[in-house]
Amino acid sequence: MKQAKFIAVIILALLCLIILLQNTATVETRILFITITMPRAVLLLTTTAIGFALGVLVSLIMCKKQKSKQE
């Protein structure tokens, strides 16, 4: 089982690396009134990190609410 998880992690890491290497073109992103120029890979990583952080935050808040209801 541990070996299967390790292989899955390696495959996912390789897929992420391939996606990042294929998205090196520069893009302009507008955030409110600011225009930022960055590689598409950086934009992908940034939006992924923000989505992950928001998911963790919502999960923590929901767990806290459920624990307080049980007590």
**Largest beta-sheet details:** 2 strands, antiparallel
Share in β-strands: 15-25%
Spans with pLDDT under 50 lasting ≥5 residues?
Answer: none
- Radius of gyration, in Å, reads 18 Å
| Number of spatially distinct domains | 1
Walk across the major sheet and give the strand order: 1-2
Gap between N and C termini, in Å?
A: 37 Å
Backbone structural class: alpha+beta
Overall outline:
flat
Overall pLDDT:
87
Helix content percent band: over 70%
Order of helices and strands: HEEH
The total count of helices amounts to 2
Describe this structure in words.
With 71 residues, this protein is an alpha+beta fold. The chain has one domain. Helices cover 73% and strands 17% of the residues. It contains 2 helices and 2 strands. The chain has helices spanning 2-22, 40-70, and strands at residues 26-31, 34-39. A two-stranded antiparallel ribbon has the order 1-2. Helix 1 (2-22) crosses helix 2. The radius of gyration is 18 Å and the shape is flat. The mean pLDDT is 87.
